[in-house]
């Protein structure tokens, strides 16, 4: 029981409070981030899976074999079905082409529908589609067809009651280019309409959800049986844009958690080191009183175990409370309530506590047990142990093991290990420059500050590395978050085109242009388009292998223009010019997949006729631009002999939505693809992910500040004593304050410079390897790093030492004695 | 009367950046139980080093030491610590009270390290005997220098006293016990030390600069440059008698 008795006495003495605080903050910040990340990741997955309205989707152009669905039943999967096709609706004298979606009971399996029962009513969340005999319509169909809620509408041979307006449909983006306004009906009514006949163009989707393992087994069982007509998909394939956003966000959250672990452990390490140093005389006294090394170890390990147990428990509780509070505060921003997290965050917190104690808190105690009892007689508390650096090994090692466990990636773990090594080496180099500098020649306060830095040269290397790690984590996370959010915003700018007009006949072109211009809408230019298939390359027919490429299997949209479209970039060859007036420009990725290069001759079949063109350039383009993009762009005039239609995209503000009806009425043969709802859904998800990233950044800042405080406190006692002696000798208060500001400011600048270097290197790896984004150099960082370092470390250090200048020196010396 | 402390041909050398340094050179001495010995000498003469070796805090480079009948130079650190716990007490120049513990808790510490149950009662009795019964729950920073040294003396006697606080088979080592005190407080502490020594029969070895204090001891050794330069048999086995 002696360790516990001593623990409570030590606690009163304040010695253990610092280490316990660091440990509690370490465990709580990591637990909070782990909880938060876990819950957000789950929420994001639910939100993102709602893009499919399921966890897996089997797509087919015809009904699938019944045994496939029985197998899903056997595995305990939940199922639903949607059937989507285009059809004409009739209501009185009004006829309108619409995109019909018949949904079974249970739809949607993931996510929800939002609908209104009156035109002016409140939108409400529902978990199932219309009942048999009823249909729900997209709002703009009502005025277009002179309909009201409760009216009858004819679809094929069956009449339906219009009983709702659809405001949100989770998987609206599933068929990106479905045309016409939506009508939703129950799939039981499908047969009675007699619309679907053999050869009808129909999109069947079978939705599945359930246990991960069962889903995995089902997909494994099903995949070998699929033909070219069927395809099973998950989010990654179904919504690559959202999947990529999620991947990056998860990488960010994981990195944040790892860095929080690292920061927190540095804080514990610094506090434990200080504890060890401060207790050297305790141990020497106890040894002279007859306590052997094993007894001392028993006492301190017992104490630390008890402390670790209490601090970890408190840390886990605080971490859980923080995340619960954070989720509550941010509840309004989440389209989906984040579900409770599992046990993993608690395990991560527990492992962090253990790793901090084993790696950082115990090594100083083992060294402490070696304390020479003769020190009580020599009155020398300096640490003669040359193995101090040896004691630094278990900490980083335990952290790396923890990060390895968290990430499951040896590459990331080794990258961190290398980074840490470089950081310490950099700290030693900067420290060397600092203490050898000639700044002391600047006079009074500078001489005191530089003298202090020189006396603690060894420890300062550790301190600069610790401050550098703290600043690096904060800066790297700040810049990574900025890069991610900017990239996400760029993916979908506010006024990105959200409607496509296709099939504009040449005779309608001027009228449509006038209509769009009359409404002052922002739109792209109108591109001519003919449909054709690539049938041969350099005289060789495209093989079956090539035909598996989606771009080749189907008909391609071929276009021509004399101006290189915005967002396109020539990466090989030349764009049309005085000397180059014929040929075809090919998108670079499809060229790579098909093995095409400059000079290859491509043969196309267009409406039964054939034409050839030579590849004269390769282009990159931005698929996120929401503009018409083409794999193949011909030179102007090359396709003049083929009948063309035109395509254009434009941005329509939500308030002007009924403009679509005007277009439909005026240009009935023009098809309008409405992407506004899909983009809105994607924006919601990206917004949610951005909030998660911002919140985690705030937690990281707290962990970073903790390291700074622990670092300052670890070196404060000696500084207090020196300051008190200088005051006793007549040193003025201002002189001391200035010297403290200079000393900590210089340490902060050194750490900031190091952090700027480390952040730049981290961002280079992060953006290119993890986030898959281009890397840009950050000149501002090299100014910001040292500035933030000087401000934070300088302020924290000066404030922490304020008692040395505000209290009578005798009191300070007495308290330190 | 039995031999409490005996040292034979002690040599102690340390290696520094400037080469090997001899701290003690061929020291021998013998001290009977219940006697008192003063070791004096200039700073750096090796007296504190000798005190530490005699108490088993360190091992000499050469030579042998017997404490309470056991050869401590043949023991490992754990065994020496166990012996110290049984029969050695210390008083330091700078008191070495643990700042996080109250006066009572500081005095209890040796008994607690030995796993004794009545540590609190014994500590209180010793504190009362040094006149600090009213300061039991004060922290070192709340005590004057003289009071702190009295707590340290109570702790030292507590570590060597038998359950019956009026008798002891132990030995008390004091390193400059009045070095941090003014004359008045120094005098009070010395009186206390010798009174308890006499009352309990404890053997006393103290290092001091003060001739006045050395004069109160039964025997006196003077050291210079690591050697005994004055005493009953300087330079060889010092048979110190009261």
Automatic annotation (TrEMBL), chain A:
List residues of the ABC3 transporter permease C-terminal domain.
255-373, 696-809
- Which UniProt keywords are given for this protein, alphabetically ordered? Cell membrane, Membrane, Transmembrane, Transmembrane helix
Look up keyword S-adenosyl-L-methionine and say if it applies: no
Q: Which Pfam families match?
A: FtsX (PF02687)
Q: What is its main location?
A: membrane
The reply to whether tRNA processing figures as a keyword in the UniProt entry is: no
**Family matches, as InterPro entries:** ABC3_permease_C (IPR003838), Membrane_comp_ABC_pdt (IPR038766)
Q: Where in the cell is it found?
A: Cell membrane
* Protein's UniProt name: FtsX-like permease family protein
Automatic annotation (TrEMBL), chain B:
> What range(s) does the ABC transporter domain occupy?
5-242
Report if keyword Metal-binding is assigned. Answer: no
Alphabetically sorted, this entry's keywords are: ATP-binding, Nucleotide-binding, Transport
What Gene3D superfamilies does UniProt report for this protein, alphabetically?
A: P-loop containing nucleotide triphosphate hydrolases (3.40.50.300)
- Annotated Gene Ontology MF terms? ATP binding
Q: Which family does it belong to?
A: Belongs to the ABC transporter superfamily.
Protein name as annotated: ATP-binding cassette domain-containing protein
Annotated source species:
Microbulbifer harenosus
Which lineage ranks, top first, belong to the organism behind this chain? Bacteria, Pseudomonadati, Pseudomonadota, Gammaproteobacteria, Cellvibrionales
């Amino acid at each position: 029981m002696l360790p516990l008795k001593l623990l409570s006495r030590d606690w009163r003495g304040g010695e253990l409070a610092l280490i316990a605080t660091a440990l509690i903050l370490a465990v709580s910040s990591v637990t909070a981030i782990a909880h938060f990340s876990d819950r957000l990741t789950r929420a994001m997955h639910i939100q993102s899976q709602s893009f499919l309205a399921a966890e897996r989707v089997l797509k087919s152009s015809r009904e699938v074999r019944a045994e496939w669905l029985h197998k899903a039943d056997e595995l305990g999967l939940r199922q639903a079905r949607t059937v989507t096709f285009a059809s004409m609706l009739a209501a009185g004298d009004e006829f309108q082409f619409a995109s019909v979606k018949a949904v079974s009971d249970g739809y949607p399996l993931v996510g929800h529908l939002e609908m209104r029962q009156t035109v002016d009513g409140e939108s409400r969340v529902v978990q199932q589609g219309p009942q048999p005999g009823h249909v729900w319509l997209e709002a703009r169909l009502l005025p277009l067809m002179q309909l009201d809620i409760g009216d009858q509408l004819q679809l094929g041979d069956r009449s339906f009651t219009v009983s709702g307006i659809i405001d949100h449909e989770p998987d609206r983006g599933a068929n990106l280019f479905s045309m016409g306004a939506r009508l939703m009906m129950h799939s039981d009514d499908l047969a009675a309409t007699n619309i679907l006949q053999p050869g009808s163009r129909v999109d069947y989707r079978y939705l599945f959800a359930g246990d991960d393992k069962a889903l995995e087994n089902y997909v494994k069982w099903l995949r070998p049986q699929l033909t070219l007509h069927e395809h099973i998909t998950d989010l990654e394939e179904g919504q690559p844009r959202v999947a990529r956003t999620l991947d990056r966000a998860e990488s960010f959250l994981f990195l944040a958690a790892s860095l929080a672990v690292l920061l927190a452990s540095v804080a514990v390490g610094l506090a434990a080191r200080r504890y060890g140093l401060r207790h050297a005389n305790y141990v020497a006294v106890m040894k002279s009183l007859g306590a052997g090394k094993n007894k001392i170890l028993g006492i301190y390990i017992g104490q630390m175990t008890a402390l670790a147990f209490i601090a970890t428990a408190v840390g886990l509780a605080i971490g859980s409370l923080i995340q619960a509070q954070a989720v509550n505060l941010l509840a309004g921003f989440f389209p989906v309530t984040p579900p409770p997290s599992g046990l993993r965050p608690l395990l991560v917190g527990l492992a962090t506590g253990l790793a901090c104690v084993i790696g950082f808190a115990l090594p100083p105690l083992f060294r402490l047990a070696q304390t020479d009892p003769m020190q009580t007689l020599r009155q020398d508390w300096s640490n003669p142990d040359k193995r101090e650096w040896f004691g630094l090994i278990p900490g980083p090692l335990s952290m790396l093991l923890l990060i390895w466990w968290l990430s499951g990636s040896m590459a990331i773990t080794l990258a961190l290990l290398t980074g840490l090594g470089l950081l310490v080496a950099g700290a030693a180099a900067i420290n060397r420059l600092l203490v050898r500098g000639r700044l002391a020649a600047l006079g009074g306060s500078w001489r005191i500050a530089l003298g202090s830095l020189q006396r603690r040269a060894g420890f300062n290397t550790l301190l600069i590395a610790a401050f550098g790690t703290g600043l690096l984590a904060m800066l790297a996370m700040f810049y990574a978050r900025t890069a991610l959010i900017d990239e996400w915003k760029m993916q979908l700018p506010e006024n990105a085109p959200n409607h496509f007009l296709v099939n504009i006949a040449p005779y309608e072109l001027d009228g449509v242009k006038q209509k769009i211009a009359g409404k002052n809408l922002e739109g792209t230019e109108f591109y001519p388009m003919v449909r054709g298939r690539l049938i041969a390359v350099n005289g060789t027919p495209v093989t079956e292998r090539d035909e598996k490429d989606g771009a080749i299997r189907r008909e391609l949209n071929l276009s021509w223009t004399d101006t290189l479209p915005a967002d396109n970039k020539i990466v090989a060859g030349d764009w049309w010019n005085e000397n180059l007036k014929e040929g075809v420009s090919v998108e670079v990725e499809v060229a790579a997949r098909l093995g095409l290069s400059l000079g290859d001759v491509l043969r196309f079949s267009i409406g039964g006729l054939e034409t050839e063109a030579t590849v004269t350039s390769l282009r990159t383009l931005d698929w996120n631009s929401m503009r018409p993009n083409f794999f193949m762009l011909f030179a102007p005039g090359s396709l003049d002999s083929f009948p063309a239609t035109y395509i254009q995209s434009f941005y329509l503000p939500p308030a002007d939505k009924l403009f679509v009806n005007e277009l439909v009425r005026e240009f009935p043969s023009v098809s309008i693809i409405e992407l506004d709802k899909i983009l809105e859904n994607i924006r919601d998800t990206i917004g949610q992910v951005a909030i998660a990233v911002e919140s985690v950044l705030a937690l990281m800042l707290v962990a970073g500040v903790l390291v700074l405080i622990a670092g300052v406190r670890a070196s404060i006692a000696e500084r207090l004593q020196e300051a008190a002696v200088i005051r006793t000798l007549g040193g003025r208060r201002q002189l001391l304050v200035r010297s403290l500001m200079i000393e900590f400011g210089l340490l902060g600048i050194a750490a900031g410079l190091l952090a700027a270097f480390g952040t730049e290197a981290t961002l280079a790896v992060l953006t290119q390897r993890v986030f898959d984004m281009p890397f840009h150099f950050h000149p501002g960082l090299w100014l910001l790093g040292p500035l933030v370092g000087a401000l934070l470390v300088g302020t924290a250090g000066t404030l922490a030492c304020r008692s040395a200048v505000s209290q009578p020196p005798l009191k300070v010396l007495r308290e330190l004695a | 009367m039995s031999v409490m402390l005996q040292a034979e041909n002690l040599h102690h050398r340390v290696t520094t950046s400037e080469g090997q340094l001899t701290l003690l050179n061929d020291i021998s001495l013998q001290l009977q139980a219940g006697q008192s010995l003063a070791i004096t000498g200039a700073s750096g003469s090796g007296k504190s080093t000798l005190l530490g070796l005699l108490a088993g805090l360190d091992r000499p480079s050469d030579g042998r030491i017997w404490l309470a009948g056991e050869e401590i130079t043949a023991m490992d650190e754990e065994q020496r610590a166990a012996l110290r716990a049984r029969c050695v007490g210390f008083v330091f120049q700078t008191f070495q009270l643990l700042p996080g513990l109250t006066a009572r808790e500081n005095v209890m510490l040796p008994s607690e390290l030995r796993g004794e149950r009545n540590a609190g009662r014994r500590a209180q009795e010793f504190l009362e005997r040094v006149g600090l019964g009213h300061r039991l729950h004060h922290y070192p920073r709340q005590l004057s220098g003289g009071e702190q040294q009295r707590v340290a003396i109570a702790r030292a006697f507590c570590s060597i006293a038998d359950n019956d606080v009026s008798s002891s088979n132990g030995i008390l080592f004091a390193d400059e016990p009045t070095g941090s005190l003014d004359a008045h407080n120094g005098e009070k502490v010395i009186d206390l030390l010798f009174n308890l020594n006499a009352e309990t029969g404890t053997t006393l070895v103290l290092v001091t600069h003060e001739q006045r204090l050395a004069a109160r001891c039964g025997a006196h050794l003077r050291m210079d440059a690591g050697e005994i330069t004055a005493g009953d048999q300087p330079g060889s086995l010092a048979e110190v008698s009261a």
